[in-house]
Specification:
mainly alpha; Amino acid/polyamine transporter I; 0% strand
Length: 330
C-alpha cells in the first residue's frame, strides 16, 4: 500500500524514497566489504563449488532466480516517458545500473565468504551471509547484512511496482488490455488504474503463501529470460525495419552481442523447462503456472488488433513524446 501511494502521487516521491534507500544500502555494503576483505581470508572461500558438483550446472541453476533479482534495472527504460533525461543517458543508465547491481552483490557476498571457512557456512549456517558476520565476531554487521537483504527487496519491489504499472499502461495503449488502464491522472501524471491493478495482483500473490511465492519467483526467472530474449530480438528487428531513425545510444558490435545474448537466454529457458535438467522447474506446480501464463499470453495476442502498422503500434506503446525522441526519421 505504501508503494502504491508513493507511485500514485508522483514519480519524484518514489525516486526520493529509492535514492534514500539506495544510499543507506550502499553505505552498509561498503562497511561489510571493508570488514570482510580486511579481517577475512580468500582461503575461507576456496574452492567455490562442492568437489562433486558441476560448476557450470551450479552457475546455470543460480542464473534463473538471478534474472528476477536483477530485474529492477529495466525500470530506467520503462520510465523513460516520464524521465527528464536525454535518450543517450537513458541507455547508459540502463546498462550501468545492471553492472552496478551485479557488482555490488558479488562484492558483498564475496566479502562475507572470506570471513569463515566455507565448510562451516555450507553445513552449519541457516541464514548464510547474515550469520557469517555474527559467527566471525561482528554481530552488529550481521544486523547490517540483514538490513541489506531487506533493503535489496524494498528497492527492487519499488522499482518493479513502477515498471509493472508502465507495462500495463503500454499494453493498454496497444490494445492488449482494456482501455481503462490507459488512464493518466490529470494532476499527478501517473497511470492510476494500472497502479491499482498492480496493487491488487501484488496483494493476491502475497496471500498465496510462501510456497506459492517461491514457485512464482522460479517461473518469473524463466519468463524474464524469455522477455529479455524477445527484447534483444526486437532490437534486431527495429534495426532492420527502421534503419534510418536517430539512435543516440550506440551498442558496439550489436549483432554479435545480440546473438550471444539470445543463445544464452534460450539455453537457460529451455533447460528450465526440460524435466530432470539441473535447473528444471518444480513439477507440477511451476509447470502449471508457466502453462497458465503462456495461455494468457496467447489469448491477449489473439485479441490484439491487427489493423495497426508497425509505426502506429510503436507510437501507441511508447507514447507520442517518447516516440518522437527515438523515431525521428533522418
Amino acid at each position: 500500500m505504501v508503494y502504491f501511494f508513493l507511485n500514485y502521487r508522483s514519480v519524484k516521491i518514489s525516486a526520493w524514497a529509492q535514492t534514500a534507500m539506495f544510499i543507506f544500502l550502499l553505505t552498509l555494503g561498503a562497511i561489510l566489504a571493508i570488514v570482510g576483505y580486511t579481517r577475512g581470508s580468500p582461503d575461507n572461500f576456496w574452492p567455490p563449488f562442492w568437489p562433486d558438483k558441476n560448476p557450470l550446472a551450479c552457475v546455470l541453476a543460480f542464473a534463473i532466480p538471478a534474472f528476477t533479482y536483477l530485474s529492477g534495472f529495466e525500470v530506467v527504460a520503462m520510465m523513460a516517458e516520464e524521465a527528464k533525461m536525454p535518450p543517450r543517458r537513458i541507455g547508459l543508465s540502463s546498462v550501468l545500473s545492471l553492472v552496478f547491481a551485479g557488482s555490488f552483490y558479488v562484492t558483498v557476498l564475496l566479502a562475507a565468504a572470506w570471513l569463515i571457512p566455507w565448510e562451516y557456512t555450507a553445513t552449519a549456517l541457516e541464514r548464510g551471509t547474515i550469520e557469517e558476520f555474527a559467527v566471525a565476531g561482528f554481530p552488529a554487521l550481521g544486523v547490517a547484512a540483514w538490513c541489506i537483504s531487506i533493503l535489496g527487496l524494498l528497492t527492487s519491489w519499488l522499482a518493479l511496482f513502477m515498471s509493472a504499472s508502465r507495462v500495463v499502461l503500454a499494453l493498454a495503449r496497444a490494445g492488449m488490455l482494456p482501455e481503462a488502464f490507459r488512464k493518466i491522472h490529470p494532476k499527478y501524471g501517473t497511470p492510476t488504474n494500472a497502479l491499482l491493478l498492480v496493487l491488487l495482483v501484488s496483494l493476491a500473490i502475497g496471500w498465496l503463501g510462501r510456497s506459492a511465492i517461491i514457485w512464482l519467483l522460479d517461473v518469473a526467472g524463466v519468463l524474464m529470460a524469455l522477455a529479455w530474449m524477445i527484447g534483444v530480438m526486437s532490437l534486431l528487428m527495429l534495426r532492420r525495419k527502421f534503419p534510418h531513425v536517430e539512435r543516440p545510444f550506440k551498442v558496439p558490435a550489436y549483432r554479435i552481442i545480440c546473438i550471444i545474448s539470445i543463445l544464452f537466454l534460450l539455453v537457460e529457458a529451455v533447460l528450465a523447462l526440460i524435466p530432470g535438467s539441473p535447473i528444471s522447474l518444480v513439477w507440477p506446480y511451476e509447470y502449471a503456472i508457466f502453462g497458465l501464463w503462456t495461455l494468457m499470453g496467447i489469448i491477449f495476442y489473439i485479441l490484439t488488433p491487427r489493423r495497426l502498422s508497425d509505426a502506429e503500434a510503436l507510437k501507441l506503446l511508447l507514447g507520442k513524446e517518447l516516440y518522437s525522441k527515438f523515431f525521428r526519421e533522418t
